[in-house]
Automatic annotation (TrEMBL):
Domain of life: Bacteria
Protein name from the UniProt record: Outer membrane lipoprotein-sorting protein
InterPro entries: LolA/LolB/LppX, Sporulation_related
Source organism (scientific name): Actinophytocola xinjiangensis
């Protein structure tokens, strides 16, 4: 499987890795403010300056999300409801991410050697060590990626620019800082529901501060996520240190259970997932066990009435039943994407119209 295609598929499907990159990067520009006067820069020069910034500078910030997908997405739907996500980095590879949750907080800390994930509600700690010294970034645990959001943005820009028209559309302010507006739009032959991805790049640090995902025919962004506060400068060293609290349950990840690597390739290497197509109209395809689709859904947590039935029944209520060479399935549409799930467990989804996911399912063996 080609790395480029996989990264595109992740972005198109809104899966965890791709979503994490969008969730942790952006916020809307200030409304009603005059655009800042900045030196002119061409799109390729701006892209190269973003890609050449290999490490986040020391900073702290707050991140929030606006989800107008028209479809609840795990992780996306909840962000910002319980408070702002806090991001910290020391500029030397150490990161901290604080995600508020119902009644508590999940904290991810990369101290440069070990990544710690602390859940204050369950009082559990997940410990994942970096790889052997000298093996470089390929041995950085995936969990650390969630605390290094700008890297995900750079990888997205690097991957998508080959299939995009790239332009600089003026300047704006994000979290009170002057930014360049980098716009990636699909080439004319791309079959996608997206109109453009707009990335706001900090004029001083070249850190991406904003991503807005805009769909065809929609005035407002489908997803708008990012920094509402951003302060560059040295951070307290104690932020990047962690000692498990007394009584916490600590689980240490072993190498064969870790997802590592420089791209989403490693995340999906062990799963039955393949990309179909390329560019903006890449579709992520895979399978789920057919018996899972017909298994009984649980009732409520205290024995009260729950959804009942099985997943196929649920799909019938939120999707449209369709049939074709693939058999029978259900199409679920959102503002920015489409998913097709067949009764025998085939799945295809992407930022594309129905005919493209249908085409993808038809070619699955």
């Amino acid at each position: 499987m080609e790395t480029k295609k996989t990264v595109l598929a992740v972005a198109a499907a809104g899966t965890v890795a791709g979503v994490a990159g969008l969730v942790l990067l952006a916020s809307p520009a200030g409304a009603g403010e005059a655009p800042p006067a900045l030196p002119e820069i061409g799109p390729e020069a701006l892209v190269e300056s973003v890609l050449s910034t290999t490490e986040l500078p020391a900073l702290s910030g707050a991140v929030s999300l606006e989800n107008n997908l028209g479809l609840p997405v795990p992780g996306l739907s909840e962000m910002g409801q319980d408070g702002a996500v806090r991001v910290f980095t020391d500029g030397n590879g150490k990161h901290r991410l604080q995600l508020p949750s119902d009644g508590g907080e999940t904290t991810v800390i990369d101290d440069g050697k070990t990544v710690w994930v602390w859940d204050s509600v369950d009082r559990t700690v997940q410990k994942t060590a970096h790889g052997a010294e000298g093996k470089g970034k390929a041995e950085t645990p995936l969990e650390s990626r969630f605390a290094d959001p700008a890297t995900a943005a750079r990888e997205l820009v690097d991957t998508m620019r080959a299939d995009s028209t790239v332009a600089v559309d003026g300047t704006a302010r994000v979290a009170g800082r002057p930014v360049y507006q980098l716009v990636l739009a699909p080439q004319p032959d791309e079959r996608t529901l997206l109109r453009e991805i707009r990335v706001s790049v900090d004029s001083e640090t070249r850190v991406p501060l904003q991503i807005e995902v805009l769909a065809n025919g929609q005035a407002d962004p489908a997803v708008k996520v990012g920094f509402t506060e951003f302060t560059a400068g040295p951070q307290d060293a104690s932020l990047f240190q962690f000692t498990p609290p007394a009584g916490a349950e600590v689980t240490e990840q072993t190498p064969d259970k870790e997802f590592r690597g420089e791209s989403a390739e490693d995340l999906f290497a062990g799963l039955d997932i393949e990309p179909y197509g390329e560019g903006w109209d890449t579709v992520l395809t895979g399978t789920v066990p057919a018996d899972l689709l017909t298994s009984q859904l649980p009732t409520g947590p205290r024995g009260e009435a729950g959804p009942g039935g099985n997943p196929l029944d649920l799909l019938g209520t939120i999707g449209k039943e369709v049939s074709g060479d693939f058999g029978t399935g259900y199409v679920i549409k959102a503002k920015v994407g489409t998913a097709l799930i067949t009764e025998d467990g085939k799945v295809a989804l992407g930022f594309v119209p129905e005919e493209v996911v249908t085409e993808a399912v038809n070619q699955m063996k």
